[in-house]
Amino acid sequence: MPRHILILDDQVDLLRILEREFNRRGDYVINLATEVAEATRIVAQKPVDLIVSDVRLGSESGFTFAGTIRELHPEIGLILMSAYRSPANRQTAESLGVMLFLEKPFPVSKLADEIESYFLRRSTPVNRTAETKTVPLESHITGSLVHFQVQDLVQLFCLNGRPMVISIGGEGGENVGNIYIQRGQVLHADLGELEGEKAFSAILNLRNPKLTVKDWNRPVPQTITSGWEHLLLSFALETDLGNENVQGVG
């Protein structure tokens, strides 16, 4: 199935370079726009799975456009690019829940690889399961989620930008680990003495964990910098490799 990408940038040369790269890789439908109005028309008239947009678009703002897309089309993935290195720009991008923020110049292959990883995650069974489930959350509800996997919840809350903590309960009902999600990304995970990505991976490897979720707006230490798509993709690849090794032993 073709993957539909919209690229928005006021530099026509860059648009052509990116278009050529994705056409070379195949199985992509690329739409190009140099203005926000043009990009908005494309989103309204054509299928779009992912938008890649520059931050500065003449007198217009890619941040404003991304915010509109996030509000009206939360199912569309977002990548932002900027030639201006600024912590404020990166923070704004994170607040919008973008999957990737790239500072120019960057290797075109890096962007293409990140996008291929994004679509690979979308095509996995975990992703499809998450898309068909709805978490029964009220404003501050906490409850057992026996029908959900941790991967489902991570993806769901990262996509909708809701600040949450996913807690893991022990045999006696005590809390043994947590995954904190804010601004559309996984910021921190802990499990026993483990923290960061090691804790995140260990939590995903737990069998039938007892899960609860609740809103969490308080600050948490950032021990994880990788995007949630990369985290889940790495876990999926490790799982596939482990299964192949088990099958090969016999």
Number of helices: 9
Helical residue percent band: 40-55%
> Structural class, from helix and strand content?
alpha/beta
Oligomer: single chain
Structural domain tally? 2
Largest sheet: 5 strands, parallel
Computed over alpha carbons, the radius of gyration is 19 Å
Poorly predicted ranges: 125-144, 243-250
Distance from first to last alpha carbon? 35 Å
Compose a concise summary of this entry:
This protein has 250 residues and is α/β, with parallel strands linked by helices. It has helices spanning 12-25, 36-45, 62-72, 87-95, 108-122, 125-131, 150-160, 196-204, 228-249, and strands at residues 3-8, 28-33, 50-54, 56-57, 60-61, 77-82, 100-103, 164-169, 175-182, 185-191, 194-195, 210-215. It folds into two domains: 3-123, Response regulator (Rossmann fold), CATH 3.40.50; 128-249, no CATH class.
